[in-house]
Amino acid sequence: MEAALGLARRGLGRVWPNPAVGCILVNDGKVVGRGWTQPGGRPHAETEALSRAGDRARGAAAYVTLEPCAHHGKTPPCAEALIRAGVGRVVVACEDPDERVSGRGVEMLKGAGIQVELGALEDEARALNAGFFRRVLNRRPLVTLKLATTLDGRIATHGGESKWITGERARTASHLLRSSHDGILVGVGTALIDNPELTCRLPGLEDSSPVRVIADSRLRLPLTGKLVKTARDILTWVITLENGPRERRLVFEDAGVRLIEVPAGEGGYPDLAAGLVKLGDAGLTRVLVEGGAHLAAALLRADLVDRLVWFHAPGIMGGDGIPAASAFGVDALKNMPRFTPLGVRALGNDIEHVLERTREA
Question: Which residue among 79, 140, 186, 318 is buried most deeply as judged by most CB within 10 Å?
Answer without folding.
Answer: 79
